[in-house]
Amino acid sequence: MDRRNFVEIVLLTILSSKISFSKNEEPIIFNKIIEKARKNQWNKLPIKQLFYKVALEFLDFPYIGGTLDKGNQESCVVTFDGFDCVTFFEVSLNLARIIKKDKTNFADLVSEVTFSRYREGTINDYTSRLHYSADWIYDNIQKGVVRDRTKEIGGIPTRFNLDFMSSNPHLYNSLRNNSEFIAKIEKIEREISMREYYIIPRDKIETAEPMLESGDIVFFATNRKGLDYSHVGICLVKESKRRLLHASSKKKKVILDTSIFNYVQQQPNITGITVVEPLEIQ
């Protein structure tokens, strides 16, 4: 999935010259979650349990997409105004990670998001953001943030043929305004397309679904030309059903949806799923 996601409010303290700030009010929601985590000693929970507990705090938050690509300089910003599918799991995961590290400042969250969102955790320019979910998965496996469970629960190897961003630069402000980025994106697409990934094919998801666990991150592969994944959400086991916790563009908010199998049946363009799990902080 190309990560045309977002994040808007921003930092209280400068982490680096690459991180932007706003004059928005104190992130009250962030502080409430941190305080709830402190009172209930969430830092002692396994990371997967902590992850979905944090994610549940955002139920009914509005869906907001396509607002990341603003401004002339790439910066990492984080908001609680609303989420798209990527920023929902991303902010939830990184909140869980800083809680496990006993960090309590909003700047700590932005630093953690920067680490997971950008290639090797470093902001250089627009092209250093992990725009494709396949790239996010690969890079965050290398960084020890997540582990791919797909193969062990029935996944088969696959490769993606990515060129959506370089073939459609008019859809991206930064590519329209910086034509030199197009060649860099094209090179990244070729690199991703050379890697092997694992997906559970569409017709095998019903069999594999009972092996999914609460706190698994589920990426939905797509047959749309030039792309890898079209959506992402979090598995939550509830009453023996593996339900999808996600920011829904259709419902315009974060919801606890139907089972993952049923969700796939409703989306004809989904070809399979990739399942990764958060790793404990080392």
Q: Topology, pairings included?
A:
Elements: H1 28-39, H2 47-56, H3 85-100, H4 106-117, H5 133-142, E1 146-148, E2 156-158, H6 164-167, H7 173-177, H8 180-194, E3 197-201, H9 205-208, E4 217-222, E5 229-238, E6 241-248, E7 253-259, H10 260-265, E8 270-278
Antiparallel strand pairs: 1-8, 2-3, 3-8, 4-5, 4-8, 5-6, 6-7
Helix pairs in contact: 2-3, 3-4
The CATH topology assignment is: Putative xylanase fold
Helix/strand/pairing category? alpha+beta
Q: Based on the structure given, which CATH architecture is correct?
A: Orthogonal Bundle
Shape: globular
Q: How many individual domains?
A: 1
The CATH superfamily bears the name: Putative xylanase like domain
- Termini distance? 28 Å
Based on DSSP secondary structure assignment, what is the total number of beta strands?
8
| Residue-averaged pLDDT | 90
Helix content estimate: 25-40%
Helix/strand order: HHHHHEEHHHEHEEEEHE
Strand residue percentage: 15-25%
Helix run count: 10
What is the radius of gyration? 18 Å
